[in-house]
User: Fold this.
Amino acid sequence: MNAKRPACAAPALETPAPAASQTYSYSDLPREESASTALAEEVALAIAYNGISQAVMLVTPTDLEDFIVGFSLGSGIIEDATDIYDLQLTGAGSAQYAQVTIANRAFWNLKQQRRQLAGTSGCGLCGVEAVEQALPDLQVLAGAPLPPIEWLDGLRQRIGAFQPLGQHCGAVHAAVFMNASGELLLGREDIGRHNALDKLIGGLIRQKISTAGGLAIVTSRCSLELIQKVLRAGIQTLVSLSAPTGLAVQWARRHNLNLIHLPQKSAPRVYSPAMENQA
Assistant:
């Protein structure tokens, strides 16, 4: 690995930040002076697979194709991007619809999952049988060396170039990919931390960007669901700007995932089999 601090590639912005934001007026207290500010927008996206409704997600209305591909893979609905045969987006305003055609094998697996679901909530799955889906049996990664510490130097500041919406109005999370040369290549934003990572994974797949030797960076706290998404995507290292949960660390170690927490004012904290092997 090249230990030099890598240059930050200029992000390719497919959608200007204002497209996902609107200006709203407000009044200051207690003087009640009027002003205006830009706020991030969100829409309801209803996703159906082979004509059967599966989920309604609140998302930032950018990179929706990336989100659907990443959501389908990260949720275990498909095993590979080739399982998606067609993707059609319709709707306008705050109501958007996605019709996704998937392979018969993937659709059969999805129907089996649906029979076991008692319901869903904002915090995850509920119902006794659904626990098995919240804690799925995922493939253990082959394991990878830790990235050079130089790659993490100034990372909080450098990923700002991939957060145009966040810089414009705040209120959104970001997920960014760094390749095997330490170059920041791709970033995605969303009001939902899971959604941002889904968009990033979908973008990597749709743009045919190799994840070998690279790492994903998330600006949000790192919980189990994010670990599961990067495991399914085959990404070997995850860097989180906020602390991981205990269960996230347990799963990272069990599945040979390099998990690195990048605190704001202290050295990177490594929760990884790679670190233990080097000890």
Notes: Confidence is low (pLDDT under 50) at residues 12-17, 116-129. The two ends are 19 Å apart (CA to CA). The first helix runs from residue 64 to 74.
